[in-house]
Amino acid sequence: MAYNEKLADKVREALADQKKIEEKVMFRGVCFMVNGKMCICVSEDELMCRVGPDAYEEALDQPGCRPMVHGTRTMKGFVFVGDEGIRTKKQFDYWVNLALAFNKEAKAAKKKKKKP
């Protein structure tokens, strides 16, 4: 599973001041959980940001942004952002801050019961 380690390091640095960070391997890369909730992922050479349904349409208007499609289903509230949308620090910070803003109101995924 190859993902852009430099991009992942940038995300780690951007999230360094968050209190509860956990990294999980998923979405062909590494996902950063903030306060037990999926926030931002590095998948191959892209960011996958959980921006929420309210910011979703505006996010799609940004350079390098596209919807997250899982199988045949578009995941409203989740977007992929390619290099064109994260080239500058200002662009990168925009996506991190948007994902962190939604993280405050997002609900954590339900814990799966462990099989006996």
TrEMBL record:
One Pfam family cited in the UniProt record for this chain: TfoX_N
InterPro entries cross-referenced by the UniProt entry: TfoX_N
Occurrences of domain TfoX N-terminal (ranges): 13-102
Entry-linked SUPFAM superfamilies: YgaC/TfoX-N like (SSF159894)
Tree of life domain: Bacteria
Protein name: Transcriptional regulator of competence genes, TfoX/Sxy family
